[in-house]
Here is the input.
Amino acid sequence: MSLYRSYFETKYGSGYVCATELGVVKVEIPDLASGNQLHIVSLSDSEQSEITIKAAMHLKSYFNGDRVDFTDIPVSLDGLTSFRQKVLIAARNVKYGEICSYGHLAELCNFSRAARAVGGALAANPVPVIIPCHRIISSTGHLTGFSAKGGKASKYAMLKMEGVEFSEMMVVKNQQVMNSKRGRK
Here is the structure.
């Protein structure tokens, strides 16, 4: 199976998307915490596909502050366990500007006592932002780890960009929560 790659530039630096014919298999985002302005000088080393081009355009728009819906971008989670696939598919349903706790996501996957395992599955997310693992936080409102470049600082920056409110590094309690009937106050 062929592997395709497209690069994207943002004010935070560059990133790339890899995909097969089935969907996106890897996303590398810029480090929002460092402000490292890496620039891609040549795309000649990789072949692009319709999927990678569209995903890269969406990611560039997202990091430029636009509200982007990634549900039209196919992903391929082949090679991950069925548990990890189920968790990542459930996390994909957390919409822009919403947050969800690890425990609630575990409940949605019918693994009510597996919040830590859910965290492990999210840490292995090969396609951050397209599968928005940055929107999953602790039940106390604290930000926990983020396996993409920049770690928690990047997670914080992306949630702030989406309009999530913070007090220090803790999410303010009145946020819109996934599957909640109450909106932001």
In short: Residues 180-185 have pLDDT under 50 and may be disordered. The two ends are 48 Å apart (CA to CA). The CA atoms of residues 81 and 127 lie 15 Å apart. The beta strands are 4-10, 13-19, 24-28, 100-101, 136-137, 166-167, 170-171.
